[in-house]
Amino acid sequence: MDMTLWPFKVIAGPGDKPKIAVQYMSEEKEFSAEDISSIVLIKMRDIAEAFLGRTIRNAVVSVPAYFNDSQRQATKEAGGLAGLNVMRIINEPTAAAIAYGLDKKVISVGEKNVLIFDLGGGTFDVSLITLEDLIFKVKSTAGDTHLGGEDFDNRMVDHFVEEFKRKNKKDISGNPRALRRLRTACERAKRTLSSTAQTTVEIDSLCEGINFYTTITRARFEELNIDLFRKCLVLVEKCLRDAKVDKSTVHDVVLVGGSTRIPKVQQLLQDFFNGKELCKNINPDEAVAYGATVQAAILSGEGNEKVQDLLLLDVAPFSLGMQTDEGVMTVLIPRNATIPAKKEQVFFTNKGQTNDIIKVYEGEGTRADNLLVKCEFSGIPPAPKGEYKITACFDIDANGILILNVSFEETTTGEKSQFTMNKTIEDRLIFKDRPFFLQALELLIFNLRNTIKDDKFASKLSADEKKVAEDAIDQAVHWLDNNKQATDDEYRKKKDELEIVSCPIIIKLPAVVHHEL
C-alpha cells in the first residue's frame, strides 16, 4: 500500500530483500534499508564531529520499542556500515523516560508509574515505566511500527487528490512529482493546524500547469484521522493491561514525538485519563536523544555519579518461542520479560532419527508470527533413543536481539559440538541434506576464525599461538576443499584433530567463547 505513495521505486534484491532504486548521475543505484540508514547515521556523525572537533567511533542508537529482532539487527548493521560501534540499541520510550526522570528530579521521591506516549513521524510506542530512586523499570510496552505523522499526512494527500480530481478532472495519483509536492504542503498544513483552526494549501502548477488552491480546517483534519488517533488509545489500554496497572494509578503521562502536538491527540489522551494534566515539561523532539546520550554516558563511564548509578531495566516487546511438532508455538521468553533474558530447551533424538528442525518464532502464535531462525539438522547417525541431546539456548541481549546457541551432544561419550546463530549469519548456517559432522567441522572453523580475528580476544594470544590457530584453520579448509566426498566419520576425525590443535588456545579465551565454540 505504502509503495503507491512513495516517490521512489522499490525492487526485489537478492533473497527477495527490498531495495530502493534511485537515479544518480544518469545511473540507477540500488540501496537497501540498511544502506539508507547508514547514510543518515554518517551525516549525523559528521555533524557531531564538526561540532565537537573530534572523531566519533561509538554510538547509542534509539529505535521504536516495538521494533522486532530483524529491525534491531538491521539497525545495528547500519551503524557498522556507517563506521560506528553501536554500543547499545535503546528503546525510544525508555530513553524518553530517562530524560523525564532527570528533568523532573523524581528519582528520590518514591515509586512512580509513568506512561510514555511516543507518537512520532512513522511509529507509535507506549510504555509503562516505574521510577524509584535510580531505577527505571519498564513494566510493559505496546505499539505500532506503522502509525505516525506520515499516516496523517497520507490521509490528507488522499483527500486532496480526490478534491483535485473532482475540480479538474485530472488524476494525479500516478504522478510522483505532484504527489511529492502535495505531501510537503500537507505536512506543512498539519503543523499549522496544531495552532490554528484553519489553513490554506497553495501549490503553483501542481499538474499540467494547473494551480491548486484550497483550505482545510482542523475539524476536517481530525475527521480524516480520528480512527488512527483512537487506535493509539487502544494500544495504551493494552499496555496498561499487560502491566496490570489501573489508569488511576498512573502518576504522569509524558508526551514524546512531534505528533503529540496535535490537539485532538492530546484531548483524547487527557479524556482517557479522566482529565489528568499531561506532562509537557520535556521537549518532545529532543527527549529521546537526551536519554540516549545519558545511556552513552553510562556505558562509556562518563558523566557524574548520579548518572553512573542509573539502572535501566527494559523488556522484550514480543514473545519468543519454538514451534512444536503439532505446529503450535511454545513460548520460552514471554513478551514484556525483562532483558537481558536467557532460556534453555533440551531435546533428545528418537530411535533411528536422522534429522531434526529447530524453528524459532517471535510473537504470540506461529500462524501470524515472524520466523527468526530455522535450523535443520540432517545426516545424524542412526542410534538408539536418547543417544543424542540437542540443547537450544535462547539469549536476548540488552539490545533486544536474539542469539541462539545450539549444542549437539552424544550422550554416551559426552562429545559435544556447539555453535551460535543470529540473524546476521543465519543464511550461512541453514543445515540441510549434509553430513552432520561436516556441518560441525564447518561451524568450528567459522567460530574459531571469527574469534581470533576479534581484537578483543586476539590480544590475549601470543603471535605464535595466533599463527598456530591460523595454520590449523587453513589446513582444515584445504582438507575440506580436497575431500568433498568424505564420509561422516572422516569429517568427525578431522573435527577432532582441529579441536586438539586449537584447545590450548581456546582455554585462554573467555568462557563465553568456549561456549560458542
TrEMBL record:
Organism: Aegilops tauschii subsp. strangulata
GO biological process, one term: response to stress
Domain of life: Eukaryota
Any Pfam family: HSP70
GO CC, any one term: endoplasmic reticulum lumen
GO molecular-function terms, A-Z: ATP binding; ATP-dependent protein folding chaperone
Protein name as catalogued: Heat shock cognate 70 kDa protein
UniProt cross-references to InterPro entries, sorted A to Z: ATPase_NBD, Heat_shock_70_CS, HSP70_C_sf, HSP70_peptide-bd_sf, Hsp_70_fam
This protein's UniProt keywords: ATP-binding, Nucleotide-binding, Stress response
Family (UniProt): Belongs to the heat shock protein 70 family.
Subcellular location: Endoplasmic reticulum lumen
Gene3D superfamilies, A to Z: 1.20.1270.10, 3.30.30.30, 3.30.420.40, Actin, Chain A, domain 4, Substrate Binding Domain Of DNAk, Chain A, domain 1
